[in-house]
Write a structure and sequence with these properties.
Layout: E1 15-16, E2 44-48, H1 58-65, H2 68-71, E3 75-79, H3 87-92, E4 98-101, H4 103-111, E5 116-120, E6 128-133, E7 148-151, H5 158-166, E8 175-178, H6 184-187, E9 193-197, H7 201-206, E10 222-226, E11 238-242, H8 249-271, H9 273-282, H10 289-303, H11 315-327, H12 349-358
Parallel strand pairs: 2-3, 2-4, 7-8
Antiparallel strand pairs: 1-3, 4-11, 5-11, 6-9, 6-10
Length: 381
């Protein structure tokens, strides 16, 4: 999401899925076409990411690199963000055709009036952690009281408050410390428990040298709370489309093609982690090779196995996310949402159709998935 790539990479970078730039919407000769809904239904597609190029998005880059979008007759432009673009806002304004964003963030936008639909829940599990030192005494969310809890903000904090609410902890009982997209403040002792993603910031710790031992830190040096194991867990990376566009039959057909290629891309990243990591490096990631391979492997763990098929939204996980969003209150007394989202907030129709059309061509559940072993090098190199 967010999710944390070094800011040294230019945030405005644009990665193209083809050698040519997208044509303007409505230019039928170059793949642009406007449907009855007024939405783009042509072969030229814009996909908005929620962060810079990195293996969190390996499946989309693999779909470009391996020609899966091309096989479906699509030319897909992958548009990164470095925090300068809010994916759901770009989507709601019609600047892009699809966007990747965390569910709780979009639920907040929907309550504010955005009409968006989750068409594929790629991440089936939460990848957010709260990491403290092994001798800190912080072993569960219940231990947060009175502590300095790190958070990036920007909508990434709601799992913290949802988990606290489940423990009957008032949000004002902790000191929320704004955390940069790295672990420096934690390592310097300014934060008792830092926010981290399994696929990024946690790896940053394990590829850092312990000044007391001269060796890299190990998992035994830390206490790790996974929000997936709490009632505050929320669904994260999903593919969103404008709700009104999904009433257009031509848009629906193009969406199914798009999702078929995405499924193939993520299946490739699952079965070829090393190659997928290199694809994201080539796409512009500034992380080192061992860090990028770690990210690919950990991202795969959030997707696979997918019992109902990759991207299919589990009703129970959705309800848990909504319940957490309703319960969460931040340190300023603000709520993420105050009412249940509309029924149009998610729809499995098109991802299930894509899975059905692929048939036996692709393993869409990854039932036998086994992560690889990744050895991190200092600095992720």
């Amino acid at each position: 999401m967010k999710n944390t790539l070094r800011r040294g990479l230019a945030a405005a970078a644009v990665v193209l899925a083809s050698s040519s730039l997208l044509a303007a919407c409505g230019d039928d000769d170059d793949g642009g076409s406007t449907g009855a809904s007024g939405c783009n239904v042509g072969s030229d597609v814009k996909l908005q990411l929620q962060w810079l190029p990195q293996a969190q998005f390996a499946g989309y880059y693999a779909a470009v690199d391996q020609g899966f979008f091309e096989e479906e007759g699509l030319e897909v432009e992958i548009i990164p963000s470095g925090g300068d673009i809010v994916p759901q806002d770009a989507l709601a304004s019609g600047d892009v055709d699809y966007a990747i964003a965390w569910v709780p963030k979009v639920l907040g936008s929907i309550e504010q009036g955005a009409e968006l639909t989750n068409i594929a829940q790629i991440f089936q599990r939460s990848g957010t952690l709260q990491v403290s030192w092994a001798d800190s005494g912080i072993e569960s969310v219940a231990d947060f009281e009175g502590k300095k809890i790190g958070s990036w903000g920007f909508g990434n904090e709601w799992e913290i408050f949802a988990a606290m609410a489940a423990e009957d902890l008032d949000s004002t009982s902790v000191s929320i410390v704004t955390q940069d997209f790295n672990m420096n403040a934690f390592l310097q002792g300014d934060i008792d428990a830092a926010q981290a993603m399994t696929y990024n910031e946690y790896a940053q710790l394990l590829e850092t040298r312990n000044p007391d031992t001269g060796k890299l830190y190990t998992p035994e040096d830390f206490n790790v709370i996974s929000y997936e194991d709490t009632e505050g867990a929320m669904l994260q990376d999903a593919i969103w489309a404008q709700t009104e566009c999904l009433d257009d039959e031509e848009f629906q057909e193009r969406t199914v093609k798009f999702l078929k290629a995405v499924i193939k891309g993520w299946a490739y990243a699952r079965d070829n982690a090393e190659e997928a990591a290199q694809i994201t490096v080539d796409a512009g990631s500034s992380w080192g090779p061992s860090h990028e391979l770690w990210m690919t492997n950990e991202t795969n763990k959030l997707i696979w196995p997918a019992e109902n098929g990759i991207g299919v939204i589990d009703e129970g996980a959705w309800k848990r996310t909504v319940d957490g969003a309703l319960a969460a209150v931040n340190e300023q007394g603000q709520q993420l949402i105050t009412q249940e989202p509309p029924a149009t907030a998610y729809d499995n129709t098109w991802i299930e159709q894509a899975i059905e059309e692929l048939g036996d061509e692709v393993d869409t559940t990854g039932e036998s998935f086994q992560p690889i072993e990744v050895e991190l090098a200092e600095g992720g190199n």
